[in-house]
Design brief:
This protein has 497 residues and is α/β, with parallel strands linked by helices. The chain folds into 3 domains: 2-159, Rossmann fold (3-Layer(aba) Sandwich), CATH 3.40.50; 165-315, Rossmann fold; 362-496, Dehydroquinate synthase-like, alpha domain (Up-down Bundle), CATH 1.20.1090.10. 48% of the residues lie in helices and 17% in strands. It has helices at 13-24, 31-39, 43-50, 52-68, 85-92, 103-109, 124-136, 149-159, 195-201, 221-233, 248-260, 274-280, 318-335, 337-345, 347-351, 355-373, 390-400, 404-421, 427-440, 443-446, 452-459, 489-496, and strands at residues 2-6, 28-30, 73-76, 95-100, 140-143, 165-167, 175-178, 190-194, 209-212, 241-246, 266-271, 285-290, 293-300, 305-308, 470-478, 481-488. Strands 6-7-14-11-10-8-9 form a 7-stranded mixed sheet. Helix 17 crosses helix 18 (404-421), helix 17 (390-400) crosses helix 21 and helix 21 (452-459) packs antiparallel against helix 22 (489-496). Bound molecules: nicotinamide-adenine-dinucleotide, adenosine-5'-diphosphate (ADP), shikimate-3-phosphate (S3P) and magnesium ion (MG).
């Protein structure tokens, strides 16, 4: 696969080409850097000593050689590559993406050091923009003016024909993983999504959509009522299709509305966070928060299908991305074996968002969660293994307001220490696990001091308590071996704090 990035100076061609190269595991080439290396001069020196026309000749000759190359590469072109018709003809035959950025934003970003066309006056950028805009717009465009680097990478990759399908072999829940599938949301679907997801991917959605606030706020009866009213007012029947496109809050919310409207209608999920793809969208649990208790109203009911597009996870911020990795790490601890080894061996490829590694991680996480859920769909026993890290994690989340996935990471850490105190896990195994958690969990989270009584208060109301002081706590003996211990939550908290 060859990808060429075109656009004005400062649009991000060089930066994003390097990032896309790591994501797709293909080499990158920066045409400016290549020309400087071959000439052993900076761009500025070439302009000064040989003139712009000589530079343009170098650009054209390099482009001609690049398009002849059979291998995959992502190319950062120089901003002026579109000036010559021959170059444009060659680029039209390739996968060429125009990075559209407003001139005002370009002026903020661009440095004039090694950009001779701007060196005497940065405001030349406006003139050059006006002169070239029609040439750039001959190519597939992505407006990335307001997107950060990772969001821009995700949107660019939605535009290139990167194909990677992995099937999930399960008769229990219909799930499939397909890079770029977000573009194929069924045209007749009613879409429920969140503001952030709509701002990034809304061009792929149908016009029948409801956009909800970001985050946990949507899991509230007020929004459920709004959704029911919308469906009734639009004469939606049980046979129509509801589609939740978003993180776990959106799929929980959509699953609950889809399970209760007219006693249940067709609904599918396009989970767009990593945590949503490997956890929240899998296994049929849905629901909302009520009064101050999390997930206390809901059903266990599978969507018709879950379509996972790994490319969407690339636009997550670092914390949200790590949350998904932490939940997946939890699943690998429960499963042990090759999945735990895979996670350990590929930790940094995952953190660098390498798409092949990420896709395999998603597949294995989904398969391992399914393996547990299909043995205990109604959550009467085995499924509680999945609460590893959640008993104290939920309490920590409620007390501190820290995001769910990070709170689970904190809870995992504390419950592992409890397991050590009770001599369920040996030090060497613990050290291995903690060293991975230390990489995943921002140290700012691990060192948070939390009020003991606040934890006690929350735990006394935890729905898993079934009205007593006893918590059924999943504890890790070693990766692949979880035991359930019934303990008094006072003892749990007092042992740790
Ligand atoms: N049903 C289950 O089995 C299950 C399991 C685990 C968690 N959950 C629930 O999932 C929720 C947490 O889900 P989450 O971690 O996905 O959080 P989330 O749904 O709040 O999404 C996090 C934020 O990221 C934004 N976002 C979503 N996709 C994005 C993307 N591709 N790029 C950029 N931003 C994006 C969202 O708009 C939101 O602002 C909690 O309510 C938790 O209870 C449910
Ligand atoms: N999406 C983005 N958001 C904010 N800043 C960006 C973004 N992409 C690139 N930048 C910054 O803009 C500047 C120019 O980026 P660069 O990749 O050199 O652009 P180009 O190669 O198109 O001239 C760099 O400082 C880079 O860090
Ligand atoms: O727009 C242009 O004509 C140019 C853009 C520069 O590359 P960047 O777009 O990477 O700054 C570089 O090729 C040269 O200064 C000319
Ligand atoms: Mg550049």
């Amino acid at each position: 696969m060859k990808i060429f990035l075109v656009g004005m100076m400062g649009s991000g061609k060089s930066t994003l080409a390097k990032m896309i190269s790591k994501v797709l595991s293909i080499p990158y080439l920066d045409m400016d850097e290549e020309i400087e290396a071959r000439e052993n001069k900076t761009i500025k020196e070439i302009f000064e000593k040989n003139g712009e026309s000589y530079f343009r000749d170098l650009e054209s000759s390099l482009l001609k050689s690049l398009v002849k190359q059979p291998d995959s590469v992502v190319v950062a072109t120089g901003g002026g590559i579109v000036l010559r018709p021959d170059n444009r003809e060659l680029l039209k035959k390739e996968t060429t993406i125009y990075l559209k950025v407003s001139p005002q934003e370009l002026k903020k970003r661009v440095s004039t050091d090694n950009r001779p066309l701007l060196s005497n006056n940065i405001d030349n950028i406006f003139t050059i923009y006006d002169e070239r805009i029609n040439l750039y717009e001959l190519f597939e465009s992505v407006d990335i003016t307001y997107l950060n680097e990772w969001e821009a990478v995700a949107i660019i990759l939605q535009k290139v024909d990167y194909k990677k399908n992995l099937c999930i072999d399960s008769s229990f829940q219909k799930i499939h993983i397909e890079a770029g599938s977000l573009k194929n949301i069924p045209k007749n679907a009613i879409v429920f999504t969140s503001e952030k997801v709509d701002s990034l991917y809304g061009e792929f959605f149908t016009n029948k959509k409801l956009v909800f606030p970001n985050g946990e706020e949507v899991k509230d009866i007020v929004y459920v009522t709004k959704a029911w009213e919308y469906l009734l007012e639009n004469n939606v029947t049980r046979k129509d299709l509801l589609c939740g496109v978003g993180g776990g809050t959106i799929t929980d919310f959509t699953g609950f509305v889809g399970s209760t409207y007219k006693r249940g209608m067709n609904f599918i999920f396009y989970p767009t966070t990593l945590l949503g793809q490997i956890d929240a969208a899998i296994g049929g649990k849905n629901g909302i928060d009520f009064k101050k208790y999390k997930n206390v109203i809901g059903t266990i009911n599978l969507p018709n299908e879950v379509i996972i597009d790994p490319i969407t996870t690339l636009s997550l911020d670092d914390i949200r991305f790590r949350e998904g990795l932490i939940e997946g790490f939890k699943i690998s601890l429960i499963s042990g074996g090759e999945f735990y080894t895979f996670f350990k061996d590929h930790l940094y490829d995952l953190l660098n968002r390498n798409l092949d590694t990420l896709t395999w991680f998603i597949k294995r996480s989904v398969e391992e969660k399914l393996r547990i859920v299909q043995q205990d769909f109604k959550d009467t026993g085995l499924r509680s293994y999945l609460n590893l890290g959640h008993s104290l994690g939920h309490a920590f989340e409620a007390v501190t307001g820290i995001a769910h996935g990070l709170s689970v990471g904190w809870g995992l850490y504390q419950e592992l220490m409890y397991s050590k105190n009770k001599k369920h896990i040996d030090d060497r195994t613990l050290y291995d696990i903690i060293s991975i958690l230390d990489v995943l969990l921002p140290s700012s989270i691990k060192n948070i001091k939390v009020e003991k009584n606040a934890l006690m208060n929350y735990l006394s109301n935890d729905k898993k308590m079934e009205g007593s002081n006893i918590i059924k706590l999943p504890l890790l003996k070693e990766p692949g071996e979880v035991i359930i211990k019934e303990i008094d939550y006072h003892e749990l908290v007092n042992t740790l704090f």
